[in-house]
Amino acid sequence: MLLLTSAITAGALGLSACGSRDDKASDGDKDKKTTVVIGLDAPLTGDLSALGQGIKNSAHLAVTNANKSNEVPGVTFELNPLDDQAQPTSGQQNATKLAGDKKAVAIIGPLNSSVAQSMQQVAQSSNIALISPANTTPDLTQGKDWKQDKRKRQFTTYFRTATTDEVQGAFGGKYAHDQIKARTAYVIDDQKTYGVGLASAFSAKFASLGGKIVGTEHVNPEDRDFKAIVSKAKSARPDLVFYGGEYPAAAPLSQQLKESGVTVPLMGGDGMYSADYISLNKKSAGDYATSVGKPVEQLNSAKKFIADYKAAGYKDRYEAYGGATYDAAWAVVQALKAVVADNGGKLPDDARAKVVQALGKVSFSGVTGTISFDKYGDTTNTMITAYQAEGNAWKARHSAEYKR
Predict the structure, then answer these.
(1) Is the dihedral of CA 335, 341, 342, 346 positive or negative?
(2) What DSSP line would sit under 197-259, residue for residue?
(3) Quick one: how far is CA 35 from the chain centroid?
(4) For range 98-109, the mean pLDDT
(5) Which of 259, 264, 258, 211 is nearest to 237 (CA)?
(6) Region 179-191: what's the mean pLDDT?
(7) Residue 147 pLDDT
(8) What ranges in 6-87 are assigned the alpha helix state H?
(9) Residue-wise DSSP of 321-364
């Protein structure tokens, strides 16, 4: 756990042996601060740790900056990051542990939508805000009937600073058809909540524009040998292969496709948009990935974040979700700031519940743009960017805002 403050001792409180205070202690008591905890859940080890570490570091930076600037007078923030290894069971256990900490006012994370599904009810039952910088499955906020436009908020404690796959998948389908000029696509997903949803949204949009899905397949996300699927995709002779899933499987899938003679691009979503995808894939050149928001390197609003992150000396990159994570953590800080201000400058006993209410009203200029949430808890920022692998890096090709 990253401890940003030390425990307050009896001496620091100015207490004598019998519990009374002297005049000097009373003066010093004005500077006493209350410590609150912001929990964090992400895959800090395992295949997706590159993304998880970027999430942890970016949240730590937000907490550090909040403490340095005394953003909430009388309050010191402490980050408690826990590792879920991208496993729903671990995420649920972490949510239970973090919610059990009376000092905790919110939880940042998780990375995976499938993990979020295991955490949402725990957060709701404990009335603690769960705010993800990365979850994109629409069901999490709008319910399973969102495709029929029967949208209903599922959990009042759940928010996210990443837009949904309804937006991302549709953007990808349109980009593949209009910009890549693909007319046929072979669609593969990893059977996980995120991958299935993304592939479905892509396919629906691509087909609506006149594109043809010439084949579909499902893989085990733990597999790294895709000979059978590669053979099927090769026989279908598509203009594009779309993969709904994450980079640990996407990288070898792409390489094996190219080595078999399928020279068309592999396209995926934000789960594929990682520097590790390129380092794991000798044949990544020309592949595409979409990701939420604009690249932070192109945003004036992100200049301080990038400079601060570099100055902090973190070993790992901030990756795809660094900016959105900083914004998620800062949203919690701003919500608590409003709660404390409304309570005469003191932390109320029911701060956790009031932070949930305050998050729904938060609006500020963040790293990734204006941060606010709609009636479902979704971000109002629906910007998506298409990237293409070139050399040893992803290059931004096109950004656009998508509205329902």
Answers:
(1) positive
(2) HHHHHHHHHHHHTT-EEEEEEE--TT----HHHHHHHHHH--SEEEEES-HHHHHHHHHHHHH
(3) 25
(4) 98
(5) 264
(6) 97
(7) 86
(8) 23-28, 49-68
(9) THHHHHHHHHHHHHHHHHHHHHTTTS--TTHHHHHHHHHTT--E
Euclidean distance between CA atoms 178 and 206, whole angstroms: 9
**Residue of 386, 190, 179, 187 lying closest to 289 (CA atoms):** 386
Sign of CA dihedral 115, 116, 121, 127: positive
Whether 290 contacts 23, CB under 8 Å: no
Is 34 strand, coil or helix?
A: strand
Six token digits for residue 342: 């409304």
CA distance 221 to 241: 17
pLDDT at 33: 86
Q: How far apart are CA 80 and CA 5, in angstroms?
A: 12
Two tokens, residue 62? 């937000």
Q: Which residue has the tokens 């994370």?
A: 109
124-156 b/e (C-beta count within 10 Å ≥ 16 → b): bebbbbbbbbbbbbbbbbbbeebeeeebeebbe
Judge whether residue 4 has pLDDT over 60: no
Q: What does DSSP say about strands 104-108 and 34-42: parallel, antiparallel, or unpaired?
A: parallel
- Under DSSP, is residue 107 helix (H, G, I), strand (E, B) or coil? strand
- pTM attached to this predicted model: 0.83
What would the pLDDT profile of 278-308 be if each residue is shown by its tens digit?
A: 999 999 999 999 998 888 999 999 999 999 9
CA distance 273 to 323: 14
Strand pairing partners for 273? none
Backbone Cα Rg of the chain: 23
CA–CA distance, 215 with 232 (Å, rounded to integer): 8
